[in-house]
Amino acid sequence: MQIIDHDIETKIQKDIMANILQGKYAPAIKHVLDVLEELYNSIPENKRTSFGRVYTVQVLSRYLFSRLVEIGANVYEIGTTLFERSQDFRSKGIALGILSFYGIDDYEKVLPFFEASASSPDWNMREFAQMFFRKLVKKWPDEMKEYLLKLTGSKDPNIRRFVSETLRPVRENRWFYKKPDYSLSILKNLFRESSEYPRTSVGNNLSDLARHLPDLVFELVKELVASGDRNSYWIAYRACRNLVKKEPIRVMNLLH
């Protein structure tokens, strides 16, 4: 859906791009928030459930990245400065989006910004982190697998939750259905998760996977229950949210 029209594009160029290129980040950030509001208002009311404010952050960050690349600007410097100077989660999310596109070519530089966002006390930044990180997983699967495996050992439950959310089999991660071992080889490190926040994410992850790979998740549930670990059982129970709708008896027998 196209939501950047000629008028909005002119405002982006004049009020955001021009200020950024002159190093005037305070007015640029203010106008980022104004443009995001206009983008949201340009979405037809009946589509705002599917295409809401998060969508506007995705659209604007992609647009800014493309235009900055076109004019040969220092995208990394602009993205990091915008990130560091932004106080509002929306403009900070735009900065993270820009950095995520930059990371497609140079992921090492942007990882600290994702980790900072994933551990943020602001729920919105944690959501932006897992959402924007998925493109790096797709582009750099081996490197990001190693990175995510390391993060499963973090003492911060927000970071561990970031790992699981990043690996949810949503639209960007549909390739997991053909290669489920990729995500599961990482996720298994969280199968005894003691903190409810990441543990819920792990259970939801498996529940999502069960929509397309029910037999695989049934086997995982069996293993989780057999482990005797109460946290594993909790994950198994959560993983069955979709399975129980189709095979309630089988689920009850596994969770008895």
Summarize the structure.
The chain has helices at 6-21, 25-41, 53-70, 75-85, 89-102, 107-118, 123-139, 141-151, 157-166, 180-187, 196-209, 214-226, 230-239, 243-246, 248-255.
Mind summarizing the main beta sheet? none
In helices, the fraction of residues equals: over 70%
The proportion of residues in beta strands is under 5%
End-to-end distance: 47 Å
Element-by-element helix/strand order = HHHHHHHHHHHHHHH
Report on this structure.
Helix content is 71%, strand content 0%. With 256 residues, it is mainly alpha-helical. The longest helix has 18 residues, at 53-70. The chain starts with 5 loop residues before the first helix and ends with a helix.
Write the layout of secondary structure elements.
Layout: H1 6-21, H2 25-41, H3 53-70, H4 75-85, H5 89-102, H6 107-118, H7 123-139, H8 141-151, H9 157-166, H10 180-187, H11 196-209, H12 214-226, H13 230-239, H14 243-246, H15 248-255
Helix pairs in contact: 1-2, 2-3, 3-5, 4-5, 5-6, 5-7, 6-7, 7-8, 7-9, 9-11, 11-13, 12-13
Q: What structural keywords apply?
A:
71% helix; mainly alpha; 15 helices; 256 residues; single chain
